[in-house]
TrEMBL record:
Gene Ontology MF annotations: DNA binding
Domain YlxR: 8-82
Database matches in SUPFAM superfamilies: YlxR-like (SSF64376)
Swiss-Prot/TrEMBL keywords: DNA-binding
Name listed for the protein in its UniProt record: DNA-binding protein
A Pfam cross-reference name: YlxR
Length: 94
């Protein structure tokens, strides 16, 4: 019997993707926003696709700002961290 693959909706593209193909963005009780590489940190999670082109386009269009309700100043480091995590995953594992 095949295992069911958990799907989540990307808040940048509004498309459904397997959870493992997405990065989690967390807003915690202290109203801090950060990228969660483990997918297990406490807080309200939203998911973004691991696609540099879509992340950069979302940054230009301020998509996270409108979806999460924070200003650009608070979300710039989040975009940077998401991009860093995407690059880190592109490195072949030995």
């Amino acid at each position: 019997m095949k295992k069911k693959v958990p799907l989540r909706k990307c808040i940048l593209t509004q498309e459904m993707h397997p959870k493992k193909d997405l990065l989690r963005i967390v807003v915690n009780k202290e109203n801090e926003v950060f990228a969660d590489a483990t997918g297990k940190k406490n807080g309200r999670g939203s998911y973004v696709v691991k696609d540099l082109e879509k992340v950069n386009k979302a940054r230009e269009g301020k998509v996270l700002e409108s979806r999460l309700g924070f200003d650009t100043e608070k979300l710039d480091p989040v975009y940077d961290e998401v991009i860093r995590l995407i690059y880190r995953e592109d490195i072949p594992k030995r």
